[in-house]
Write a structure and sequence with these properties.
With 385 residues, the chain is of the alpha/beta class. Helices cover 26% and strands 29% of the residues. It is built from 11 helices and 21 strands. A hairpin with a 5-residue loop joins strand 17 and strand 18. Helix 1 crosses helix 2 and helix 2 packs parallel to helix 4. The N and C termini lie close together (11 Å). The model has no long low-confidence stretch (mean pLDDT 95).
């Protein structure tokens, strides 16, 4: 952003009256009651909210972060695309694959994070698997050929390739070696998240006692048919110490379940993620998804061609926040916190920066769903939209 003043107008989340925020040299210079003069972006009816933190991004805008071909500049390109949809912080995710693919992904992100601005916005990587359930259902779309038991020597090579920047790892608590592996992750400062599993309540309790702190996309990565009482979902919801991430595209979780998880976890232990794949941000149509034909529908749903089976997510994180605010008990301010402050606290990301990180938008209420008409987005003090 140039050194000239830039004035935005709107109602700051949590407030009742509109304000004028003066941005000078990329920093918030003053916040005053809205005047009658002209502003550069927004209006008295606009909403001013913090930018977002997406903790699970597999790719975006045609750029796939999986495999051996990804380059450091691809990470930077995804970052630029995400900033334009209001995501200022994010965690690249590498799913179950060969040792070499995951090692390459970790090293690629580490190389990209030599850029100081990227390093501020990306706290590390998420390794989703390969230490997950091998069974159909809880395994999800992960390749069974590469599912395996926890291996500390293998992980430490990934950890080294990532220059120690592994933010969290998703694993199944019931598999052999999961509990001692969890304890070792805690020693390294890596958050352990439970996901893609079919664990008993006892196994979940042991994992929590060992230091597990969250659940990956709770309500998904489960067997399609489960016992109504004895299943992995209820004990994870009941464990107050576990944060839970949710994919709030209304495809992965129906609104009643989304509302229930939000009500049980509350605004301080819920995190909203997009779980975006590389098809997200593209036009509706048919695409290749790791050799599998899929369809991106106009609704944003990605499904295996010729079926109704989900194959990732294409809904923006901002839309997910609006979905949570509409379909749960959480206020809009609380929903935004679940995609900004709450994950930042869990992963130790400081928001003490003096640079402006703001989304200014008009809320459009419709019968089918709410949407955002974005007026401007500021990331690290720069106007990206």
């Amino acid at each position: 952003m140039a050194s000239k003043d830039f004035r935005i107008r709107g109602v700051v989340l949590g407030e009742s009256r509109p304000s004028d925020i003066l941005i000078r040299d990329g920093k918030i210079s003053s916040i005053t009651s809205a005047g009658r003069g002209k502003c550069d972006a927004g209006s008295a009816n606009s909403i001013i909210a913090p930018t977002l933190f997406d903790i699970q991004v597999n790719g975006y805008g045609g750029i796939d972060l999986q495999g051996r071909d990804v380059l450091p500049e691809d990470v930077a390109k995804v970052d630029a695309k995400l900033r334009r949809i209001g995501v200022s912080h994010w965690i690249p995710t590498f799913i179950t694959s060969s040792f070499e693919n995951i090692e390459h992904g970790c090293a690629t992100v580490a190389a990209a994070l030599k850029d100081a601005s990227l390093s501020r916005r990306i706290p590390g990587v998420h390794i989703e698997g390969p230490y997950i359930s091998p069974h159909d259902g809880p395994r999800g779309a992960h390749d069974r050929r590469h599912v395996r038991k926890p291996n500390l020597r293998e992980f430490d090579k990934w950890y080294k390739a990532a220059d120690g920047r592994v933010a969290y790892i998703t694993l199944a608590p019931e598999i052999d070696g999961a509990i001692p592996f969890t304890k070792e992750m805690v020693k390294r400062g890596v958050v352990v998240s439970l996901g893609h599993h079919n664990a008993t309540p006892d196994a979940i309790a042991r994992a929590v006692d060992a230091g597990a702190r969250m659940c990956t996309h709770l309500g998904n990565g489960l067997a399609s048919t489960i016992n109504r009482h004895h299943n992995p979902l209820w004990p994870q919801m009941a464990k107050d110490s576990l944060h839970a991430s949710v994919i709030a595209d209304l495809e992965h979780l129906p609104p009643p379940l989304l509302k229930t998880i939000a009500r049980v976890k509350g605004p301080d232990r819920l995190m909203i993620t997009s779980d975006a794949v590389h098809i997200a941000g593209l036009k509706p149509g048919r695409y290749d998804f790791g050799g599998i034909p899929v369809e991106l529908l106009k609704t944003g749903r990605i499904q295996l061609s010729g079926t109704d089976l989900l194959a990732g997510s294409a809904t923006t994180l901002l839309q997910g926040v609006l979905n949570v605010a509409r379909h749960t008990d959480l206020t809009l301010a609380q929903a935004f916190a679940c995609a900004s402050r709450i994950p930042a606290e869990l992963f130790g990301v400081s928001n003490a920066s003096t640079r402006a990180n703001l989304i200014v938008f008009d809320l459009v209420r419709k019968a089918a769903r709410d949407s955002a008409r974005v007026q401007t987005i500021l990331v690290d003090g720069s106007q990206v939209v």
